[in-house]
Amino acid sequence: MRRFVADKTRNLVRRASTCSPTCPVSPRPHHPPSLLSQPTSPPFSSSSPSHPSSITSPLRFLTAAALHPLSFPASPNSMASNYSTTPVTLQSVNPKVLKCEYAVRGEIVTLAQKLEQDLKQNPDSHPFDEVLALCDHPAILDRSETQGLFSADAIERAFQILDQIPGRATGAYSHSQGIKGLRETIAAGIAERDGFPADPNDIFLTDGASPAVHMMMQLLIRSEKDGILCPIPQYPLYSASIALHGGTLVPYYLDEATGWGLEISELKKQLETAKSNGVCVRALVVINPGNPTGQVLAEDNQCEIVEFCKNEGLVLLADEVYQENIYVPDKQFHSFKKVSRSMGYGEKNISLVSFQSVSKGYYGECGKRGGYMEVTGFSPEIREQIYKVASVNLCSNISGQILASLVMNPPKVGDESYESYTGEKDGILSSLAKRAKTLEDALNSLEGVTCNRAEGAMYLFPRIDLPHKAIKAAEAAKTAPDAFYARRLLDATGVVVVPGSGFGQVPGTWHFRCTILPQEDKIPAIVSRLTEFHKKFMDEFRD
Amino acid sequence: MSSKPLDYENLNKNVKECQYAVRGELYLRASELQKEGKKIIFTNVGNPHALGQKPLTFPRQVIALCQAPFLLDDPNVGLVFPADAIARAKHLLSMTSGGLGAYSDSRGIPGVRKEVAEFIERRDGYPSDPELIFLTDGASKGVMQILNAIIRGEGDGVLVPVPQYPLYSATISLLGGTLVPYYLEETANWGLDVNNLRQSVAQARYKGITVRAMVIINPGNPTGQCLSEANLKDVIKFCYQESLVLLGDEVYQQNIYQDERPFISARKVLMDMGPPINKELQLVSFHTVSKGYWGECGQRGGYFEMTNIPPKSVEEIYKVASIALSPNVPGQIFMGLMVNPPKPGDISYERYVRESKAVLESLRKRAHIMTDGFNSCRNVVCNFTEGAMYSFPQIRLPPKAIEAAKKAGKVPDVFYCLKLLEATGISTVPGSGFGQKEGVFHLRTTILPAEEDMPAIMASFKKFNDEFMEQYEDHKGYSRM
User: What is the required cofactor set for this protein (chain B) (predicted)?
Assistant: First the structure.
């Protein structure tokens, strides 16, 4: 399967890189490229001829891509003329769509997602399957044969959940915030986690955490004068969403030298710069644990962040989808809700939106699209508006809603499933920790590569000091240097990584993101292939 | 406390302006009353399972097996699940990239998209390309994605029928575009007149709007009318001449309650028209698992199919779809099953046909019961529900009622619907939520309440309506001699 995937990717990459970009004859105003652009990239590169001028001077210096204006891969003339009079062409499609980029996507990287399925291929790691199956087919619940197929407490749990669904109709649209009983379960789970109460009316269940992020961006962004502070490196959902909604991304740099630390002084500096450029900064995005960087924030750091948002009147958008992925004994997850409440800040003091998902953790149910946001510190009028926007899509999928409630309310001590559940969970998490360490060590042993430890999440984000010869070769191939390395790596080993420029990085530095998800027994082979490739690469390009 | 970003006055204006009446004022009031213990009949949204319609057995069997694949290895599985469901589950699971819990291709599982393409080909007689079919979390998400690609700013207009399903008005509003209404003709059974279209477009252009797309909802929501082939041809020609992309909302294609105008897809008509138009007119068609006789609203399964959209635009649409990583996989499974149901000879075939027929026959019956029931009420005129799931009677409100509404600070049909709700527990959506001609009022209800409950519901409505009209009508000829 991997060979097939690698071959397919190679072909795609070859096809894309042989498209030679041509610049249109008429002079085009030079526009600052978007934050995450690469000079050329496979099918999804974009150049928007009528790119709205945005306040992007901080962005200009972020990548070497600033040296190269974006350009289209050549399109045969005949194709263009066939469609030139139709309403939806590249020239007339919404430019915000063209502008937005999402490096984690595209065929090459979709294949990367497939590798993430390794988490799901472990046949024993399915703690919630039975309950979901029963909820999907309640007709069999009363039959005695069912008891031969399903465990007793899965059946009981299914009954409990179905009793919270009017008419046991899992095929019906639910309340637009999600089924009330499930939200109550989730609120109870949050309260148990944090030691502070949670209100089911603050919870909006969504098809994964991503739609919830989009909703908040929609609410916050009125025009390109509205800015959102985002960490660099960041998960490119944020940059893409901000672009789609026509806003401005205001970057703040995480400090690689201090394990990707988040400095308040950096936040303050970027906020001031944005303000002086006429940008109205509305919110701060914090990803904890971080993606791609994996750092887990220290509690006092979190207090500073809360204080900062409160003083500057910013909405705190806390992406906490990796809260169950922590691999180091010296760090712990603390939700921003808990931290704010511990500081004595309540509803009237801090506007906070916390995002959670069923896609990560030890459950990894990405395909179910389950997630929620907990919205606190907003007036009832705002809540009505959020509700209104949620209601246009009627509701999120029920299966995902049920899963979210199971994730936030797993088996407890004394439950029949508790032991097997804990066994599965601990097994998965300790395996992830092991894999993180093994890969981190392997990467650090490579020439010119330094890799911070993965304290949490699912990724490693090593930095490579690429020799000048490699950088020149990349330029000649009209690719960003980290993409050049990644492509070579793919060709030689079949290992798919995402170039750091997809996430943002300090200009002149190069990274790539890889997951820690390949099965334990496959890791030695991956490490040796990677090591061999890297040595050959450095031999070829060493200065 | 200084002004904060999510204070009401600082919110994105587009959010504040968009409206979605289906879960708006009436629904919220109905929910309040329900909490207070009043029995409410929710007819505000096409949500069949919430009103007692049972899910079809076969898809639920298959999805349960897909959710818990360990069952497939259990020797006792055959005691609870039929062999064809087991086989289908295995087949579908093999098409996923790691079971239901794994992100799929952002466009949807390729195997399912292929089955959708085959369904379309069987239905229309023309091949369909799976690469141009994207699965989505419900058809609504697909509509939002496509409109997002089309609308650049308020200078861009989208032709939308009035009355319309307010997903369109809400989304256009959220995206900062302009809705260009074209009126359906109530007296001609909600017919679509191309002259109305031309007029609407001319007016919009006069105001400086670039009209980019045209939405048709066929069968209509809330109006239920089924477009004739001739009508579809006219629409297609019109879009071609005016350089509009046609958006065909066909989610109710399996809900047809008359035999004069069976469903015919916009794509089939387009292909039948031959070159050059069949290769040039840009069309996006939408479908779902939420309607028909499946009614699996909660699964959030849908797709859109693109015709004559240039590859680079398709790539951009793919790019945006990929930000959400993938549509939910169980919903995709439902879609795969819907387009490829049990066939003659399959173990589950007879039961499947029996269950499906029962639902459709009952819906047809209920369409009649409701239409006739409304028409027997004072000052109420109701076109027959030819298709979809709704009834949209016109309520001729007397002037005194309209005055009373104004005094209460309510739009007249909202006023009527609130009174109806309070008196009878019937929760409807006022016609103003869908758009209507000035001074003409309607309400939308679904035809989904159970058949056995219908007579009582219609009687309850009639009682309320006739008393309301009695109360507010002018009694001419009343002499005080």
Answer: pyridoxal 5'-phosphate
- Asked if A376 and A347 touch (Cβ cutoff 8 Å), the reply is yes
Contact assessment for residue B256 and residue B386, using Cβ atoms and an 8 Å cutoff: yes
Tokens 């020149």 correspond to what residue? A472
Q: For chain A, what's the residue count?
A: 543
Tally of CB atoms within 10 A around A339? 23
Q: Does residue A65 surpass a pLDDT of 50?
A: no
> Is the model's pLDDT at B368 over the cut of 50?
yes
With CA atoms as reference, the chain B residue closest to A111 would be B105
- Angle formed by the axes of helices A481-493 and A468-476, to 10°? 90
Residue-wise pLDDT tens digits, B245-304 = 999 999 999 999 999 999 999 999 999 999 999 999 999 999 999 999 999 999 999 999
Residue among A455, A451, A469 at smallest CA distance from A514: A451
Residue-by-residue DSSP string for A38-51:
-SS-TTT----TTP
Window A:15-74, CB contacts with B under 8 Å: 43-44, 46
C-alpha span between B241 and B244 (Å, rounded): 8
Within 8 A of B65 by CB-CB distance, chain A residues are 133
Q: Could you say which of B22, B49, B100 has the minimum Cβ distance to residue A367?
A: B100
* Helix/strand/coil for B429: strand
Q: Which of A78, A83, A137 is the mutation pick for testing B, counting most B CBs within 10 A?
A: A137
Q: Token digits for A178?
A: 């999600």
How many whole angstroms separate alpha carbon B467 and alpha carbon B457?
A: 16
Tell me the C-alpha distance between B328 and B104, whole Å. 8
Cα A147 to Cα B89: distance, rounded to the nearest angstrom:
21
A225-278 tens-digit pLDDT: 999 999 999 999 999 999 999 999 999 999 999 999 999 999 999 999 999 999
Helix extents (H) in A357-449 = 380-392, 398-407, 418-444
DSSP 8-state symbol, B55? P
- Torsion sign (Cα): A200, A205, A209, A210: negative
Residues A108-136 pLDDT 10s: 454 555 544 544 444 444 668 889 999 99
Residues 386-415 of A with CB under 8 A from B: 388-389, 391-400
Distance CA B12, CA A351 (A): 16
Write out the H or E segment, with its range, that includes residue B288: strand B283-288
pTM: 0.76
* A211 part of contact set with chain B, CB < 8 Å: yes
**Gap between the Cα atoms of A212 and B452, Å rounded:** 41
Of A188-197, A380-389, B264-273, minimum mean pLDDT range: A380-389
